[in-house]
Amino acid sequence: MEGAYLAGYSPYHNVRADRRYPVMTFVFALNDRIAPPYDPLKMVARLQAEGTQGGPYFLLPLRDSGHGGGTTLTALVEQDVDELSFYCWALGVTLLSSPASAAPR
Fold first, then answer.
1. How many C-beta neighbours within 10 Å does residue 40 have?
2. What pTM did the predictor assign?
3. If you compute the radius of gyration of the chain from its CA atoms, what whole number of angstroms results?
4. Nearest-angstrom CA–CA distance, 73 and 88
5. Most C-beta atoms within 10 A of its C-beta, which of 24, 50, 54, 73?
C-alpha cells in the first residue's frame, strides 16, 4: 500500500513518453549523506530512456555542498552563478553591454 502511494507522486515513477518536459537542470551534491547523488542521474537516464519530448536535461554536480553544512561563501556564489546562467540560457536572456564599456573613448 505504501509503495503505491509513494509511486503516485514520485517524479521518477511518473515519467511518460507522451509528455513534453521542459528544459531542466538537476543540481546535486556529490558529498551529500542524506540525498544520494545518484538520484538525479537516474532521473535524467529515465527521461532519456523513455524517449520523452522536450529537454535537454542538465546535471550540475556540487563538490563542496550537501546536508552536512560547511559550504563556503565562494562555493555558494559559484552555485548561484551556475544556476542563474542556466536560467538565462533556458529563457533566451541576452546580456547587454555595461554603460562603462559602451561609452565612447
1. 20
2. 0.72
3. 18
4. 22
5. 24
